[in-house]
Amino acid sequence: MSSNSLWLQRHLHLYSIGLIIMCLGANRIGAQPTFKQERPRIVITTDPELDDNNSLIRFLLYSSDFEVEGLIYASSGYHWKGDGNGTKWYVPGREYARFGLDTCPCESWRWPKNERFIHNAVEAYAKVYPNLKAHDLDYPAPDELKSKIRYGNIQFDGDISKDSPGSDLIKSLILDDKPGQLYIAAWGGQSTIARSLKSIQEQYENSIEWENIKKKISRKVILLPSGDQDDTYAIYIKPNWPDIDYRQFQGGPNFSYGSQLGAKPEDSVYLTSSWMKENISDRGPLGALYRVWGDGKQLVKGDIMDYFGLSGYSNDQLKKMGYKVWMPVQEKGSWLGEGDDGTFMNMLGNGLRAYEKGPYGGWGGRQVSDHELKGFSFQMSDTSQQAMVSTLSSLTSQVNKSSNVYPDFFPAAQRDFAARMKWSVTSKYSDANHAPLINIEGPLNVLASPGETIRLNANVSDPDGDIVSIKWWQFQVGTYQNKVDISDGNTARAKVLIPEDAIPGQTIHVIVEAADNGSPALTSYQRIIIIVRNK
Prior knowledge:
The protein is α/β, with parallel strands linked by helices. The chain has helices spanning 4-23, 50-61, 95-98, 117-135, 142-146, 165-175, 191-204, 210-220, 232-240, 265-268, 273-281, 284-289, 315-320, 370-373, 385-402, 410-423; strands spanning 41-46, 67-73, 149-151, 182-186, 221-225, 245-246, 249-250, 366-367, 437-440, 445-448, 453-461, 468-475, 485-487, 493-497, 507-516, 523-532. The chain has 16 helices and 16 strands.
């Protein structure tokens, strides 16, 4: 976590410029809190799946919160390009086998010709960049993002036999001496990541530097997967790099295909065609790229797995047309999916500090222990996508039951997404809404003894002058699992009674939440971690 003084030193010139402009009565530029989370270094690896495209658009709208180090095309069991030389590939248990198709061994699988969906998204971002910059000065320049795009190990599903531009970039980032951790998200298969690690192993394994390099990498690299979509984690990464932090988040909001199925009423409104049209799909260049049900698009012509762009057909009609209907048809224009959001939503600078440790939890869920996952994990190679949706839903339910009820962050996350989409088409700061600002008086980690009542003070303001409501609550992810008493929880000055049965060394996580009444209504947080000490 960066300190106030470090942040002020880094941004003093921007803050000064902002003060001058405001004094002149011009548009307000990017109001910032005096405390700001450091921007995690992150690499995105992604295959050309519909929901990956959507997750990428959301990610770019939050790129102000990151140091984006790589945007890399990857393969998976669902998408791979082939080598262009007529080489045929087959892996048992993949889609073509599960659905009884006789199309593979094949030269490629569901990979569009001249695929460039990452380039398309960054080019759309470039068109709206001036608008985004008016709302947050930390948005990276489009040319900077373009310089981070690479093609990884995309020829075949799970092939880590040779280096690629993408694996070379990841390798260089892993080996560099920049401070802080490197977060690598795998939205598709992990073969490009695995190849970068294998290349390092091949280069250094027989050298005297090897043990130190391996320890450095295990401390530095944090993997953020959307499952093991090509088995390279199970086959190579885990056996050879067992100490790398592998954060598979569960229990949080459902951003995947099928979010509509069984959604709570308070969540379902943000999945409808009317909400999507008003807030997302009609919002400028990025909205035009965003995929919704029945939008008339198809990634690969004739792909029998991809019927999402069609409208006016029933499930049975689509089956008769030859499509493999693994997800029931939804309302035209409604939510399609962003199944990879969970990998980066905990990295956001919304005050939840979820990036610090996997079990802390945030908008992307939380990292759960092996014993919580036991009996619920799945192998990509032996489950259909429809079964995967069901399995993940079941796992989320079980995780929630075993670890107290996880907060429903979905409405707040969707409203925040909608606000950033509006930023992308709004050139004046004053014409859009921005989240409240929270500053805690004192440190974010505090010591307290059993039986002690401590006061937590927050200074809350809103950059747009909106009315802000405050709520303090316990996020039951600390090592002290029981509830604590919070008084004056709807004011800026809350009191927390440390229970007598709390054991020294245990932690209690308390969140102050500030929600404004703007349009859309936005929410900010700050997490205070109470560490129990001896009396």
